[in-house]
Write a structure and sequence with these properties.
Rossmann fold, about 350 residues, alpha/beta
């Protein structure tokens, strides 16, 4: 495993208010080859752009996504004298890297890994690990919250596609709604990948439902919405993060709701980061802006820390980043659930702001 230094102290540093006195060596860990190479490239591109703004040195370390590679990652970071490391797309890397990162006092910030077991091990062993990604259960938690807020007085149908994702998401939501006295008037499992779902929407309407949770992928949700409209049924559909996918072959209809991660590039906080990437002819896709934000977070933490341990500063501070404010709770998870209520309008999902947000 090798580390490659990438050093830029751009003129944007003074313009954006980042002081050179707090410049630091920040590790960026992501795959360069294999099935996740394109995602790793997004991580590196975002971090490079951020380092130009902050004046930090980034050390790029390849992630093999094998448990045997974690020790090499930790060794490379320690040899480079990194004060923190961001990225980490694979739980396998962290599992074996974190014990050595603890010894080296290098906090690790993942923008991807969602494993609950890894965080349980972190808290038990005192590993310096923080998660900027959603945790398992966040999606169902936010869906339940929004349904309680918006649909509490409405007749609701639950339909799911029988996959592990659809079935478990629907079950988790129902378990959270039942104590509040909310029971669907209709529940069904539909066959995914069909050309039409007219029979399903007719059954939903016959049951009297006007609001429908869809536990399935984007195209199935689009077909259900299309067929409901063709039957002149006024159904409001809501799905999960799986609705953030290519808008084809059947396009979504106006007004379909999703509980999903927002388009970070559309946030006001991301204007400078998006401009920096676009100036290099790079579209701010995928992990680019989370990676950019993670470098900003590490930079701010170093600025605050002085002679304090960086891990403690990260755990008790709030940071302004390209993807919005970030703070962690006592369990090293994001204090604020990152999923948001979105509505399809024209060509994209846009944020909506119910009373609970």
């Amino acid at each position: 495993m090798t580390a490659r230094r990438f050093v830029i102290a751009g003129v944007l540093a003074s313009f954006l208010g980042y002081g050179s006195a707090s410049a630091a060596v920040i590790g960026v860990v992501a795959p360069r080859s294999g099935p996740y190479a394109s995602l790793g490239n997004q991580v590196f591109q975002g971090a490079r752009a951020a380092s130009e703004a902050t004046g930090d040195t980034i050390v790029e370390v390849e992630e093999s996504c094998e448990e045997s590679g974690g020790a090499n990652v930790a060794r490379s970071l320690a040899e480079a004298k990194a004060v923190a490391a961001i990225g980490f797309l694979c739980v396998e890397t962290l599992t074996t890297a974190l014990p050595q990162l603890k010894a080296a006092q290098i906090p690790a910030i993942s923008i991807s890994v969602r494993s609950k077991i890894l965080m349980e091990d972190t808290l038990r062993n005192g590993w310096p690990f923080y998660r900027m990604a959603p945790v398992e259960g966040d999606e169902a938690e936010k869906l339940s919250e929004i349904i309680l807020d918006l649909w509490k007085a409405e007749p609701i149908a639950f339909v799911e596609d029988g996959t592990i994702y659809g079935r478990e998401l629907a079950s988790a939501i129902r378990q959270k709604l039942e104590p509040a006295g909310i029971t669907p008037v209709f529940s069904d499992t539909f066959r995914p990948g069909q050309e039409q779902q007219v029979a399903l929407v007719r059954r939903v309407a016959k049951a009297g439902a006007t609001r429908v949770f869809v536990g399935g992928d984007r195209n199935d949700a689009a077909i259900i919405a299309r067929d409901a409209a063709s039957e002149n049924l006024q159904l409001v559909l809501m799905g999960g993060d799986a609705l953030r996918a290519a808008n084809r072959p059947v396009p979504l209809r106006e007004g379909v709701l999703a509980i999903a991660l927002p388009d970070y590039a559309a946030l006001p906080s991301a204007v400078a980061a998006v401009a920096a990437l676009q100036a290099k002819n790079i579209d701010p896709d995928g992990y680019m802006l989370p990676s950019y934000a993670a470098v900003e977070l590490a930079h701010e933490a170093v600025s605050i820390a002085a002679n304090q341990p960086l891990t403690g500063v990260i755990g008790r501070s709030s940071f302004n980043t390209a993807i919005g404010p970030i703070a962690f709770d006592e369990g090293h998870e994001l204090k604020e659930n990152p999923f948001r209520l979105l509505e399809w309008r024209g060509t994209s999902f846009v944020l909506v702001h119910p009373a609970t947000e």
